[in-house]
Amino acid sequence: MLIPLIVLRGGRVVDPSQGLDETADVVIEAGRIRSVGRDAGAAYQASDGVRIVDVSGRWVCPGFIDLHVHLREPGQEYKEDIGSGLDAAAAGGFTTVCPMPNTKPTNDTRAITEMMMARAEEHGGARLLPFGAVTKGQKGTELTEMADLREAGAIGVSDDGRCVMNAAVMRHALEYARTFDLLVSQHCEDHHLTEGAQMHEGALSTRLGLRGWPRAAEDIIVARDLILAEVTGARYHVAHISSLGAVRLIREAKSRGLRVSAEVTPHHLLFTDDALLGYDPYCKVNPPLREEEDRQALRDALADGTIDCIATDHAPHSELEKDCEFEAASVGINGLETAIGSTFQLVREGVLTPLRFVETLSTAPARLIPDFEGGSLRKGRRADITVLDPEARWILDEEALRSKSHNTPLLGRELMGRPVMTIVGGDVVHEQGT
Ligand SMILES: [Zn+2]
User: Fold this and answer.
1) Is 313 part of the annotated catalytic residue set?
2) Can you give the three-state secondary structure of 32-50, one letter per residue?
3) How far does the centroid of ligand 1 lie from the alpha carbon of residue 149, in Å?
4) Which among 358, 398, 416, 380 is positioned nearest to 63, based on CA atoms?
């Protein structure tokens, strides 16, 4: 039930959209931010229509947004569905998630986009803003009806899971998407260079006897696409950037003012291919975990804004597809409920300032979504808010996961920093401990 008025009292308000990092109250009324200020909530008392929440010691942030998730519906509901995915999102502190279109069938039509939006609406909780496909059936040849997708609610297009390999198709996709202001998110992988690949190509893949996925397969596509993005003036986005070379290319393109952006996953910020030493299928991802120099480059680039945002690439898989021998295992990590608890260490380590951390999870992805109101706690805005406890230390318990799947290498590990309250449009959709 929507409480007419909520006062979040005495928290540390971290709002990059206003450069705000100070102790303040946040007052929410009728689903919107009524006021933010040192004693903005002092006059209120708890009653039927007023809820006072003491958030001292906690961070109050504009709602977190995940530009890259896989919710598996329609078609693979045994891994996840829209309801369980949105519950996992809310528990992970996300107020908005953007599912990729590699469902079964592919989200390449208005009907499927509308069905997904309706399912989300019916379930409630976190917002769902889907990506439609770039090409019909993600086959890489014929463009989708992007006008229809946009009208139905898609915020971008992507063939994620596959790369748009044909340069002519990609060029037309960028031109077409530009007309509708859709973000074009590319899974950058030259598939000819990665056939049969199991992990990053390097000294370790040789040692482990596994076929490698070279950095060049990513860099070549990023380089080509940046040329096409410049020619077309479209909004081009690199999904799950993982290589040092791709970072360099994005940095150079941004320095020339191109409208390009990039996201990085928590696992590429945290792990290297060393994690595969024990052939752990839970660390098998695409693009693969790379080397220390890549990880360092990704961290630096996230700090300096070359990489815009963190996105989980939440990829739930059943035990059947993950608890098996390495070469047979599916790629992907279940990420929605661990993203904050795993990346908050970047703040503790001084890699990201508090403002930059919140920006990478909220204000920056909000800017990439066309006509989107989120990413800010300004007065009058829709009250999408994430409250997190920066001091929390917690062990990731498999049983507590809201996601239907449990494929994460972080099970049983201690995490630091935890989302404790998720508010969507003034509605508390998740509260830690309830
Ligand atoms: Zn991908």
Assistant:
1) yes
2) EEEEEECCCCCCCCCECCE
3) 20
4) 358
Give me the catalytic one of 25, 313, 384, 389: 313
What tens-digit pLDDT sequence spans the chain (434 residues)? 567 899 999 999 999 999 999 999 999 999 999 999 999 999 999 998 999 999 999 999 999 999 999 999 999 998 999 999 999 999 999 999 999 999 999 999 999 999 999 999 999 999 999 999 999 999 999 999 999 999 999 999 999 999 999 999 999 999 999 999 999 999 999 999 999 999 999 999 999 999 999 999 999 999 999 999 999 999 999 999 999 999 999 999 999 999 999 999 999 999 999 999 988 888 999 999 999 999 999 999 999 999 999 999 999 998 888 888 888 888 999 999 999 999 999 999 999 999 999 999 999 999 999 999 999 999 999 999 999 999 999 999 888 899 999 999 999 999 999 999 999 999 999 999 75
**One-letter amino acid identity for 323?**
D
Distance 391 CA to ligand 1 centre (A): 32
pTM over 0.85: yes
- CA 131–ligand 1 middle distance (angstroms): 13
Question: In Å, how far are 86, 100, 156, 157, 264 from 113, measured between CA atoms?
Answer: 16, 11, 11, 12, 25
**Residue 42 Cα, ligand 1 centroid: separation in angstroms?**
47
No. of H helices and E strands in the chain?
Answer: 14, 19
Cα–ligand 1 centroid distance for 43 (angstroms): 49
Among 369, 337, 336, 331, smallest CA distance to 160 is for: 331
All residues at 6 or more sequence positions from 52 whose CB lies less than 8 Å from its CB, including other chains: 7, 9, 41, 44, 45, 46
Is 362 in contact with 20 (CB distance < 8 Å)?
Answer: no
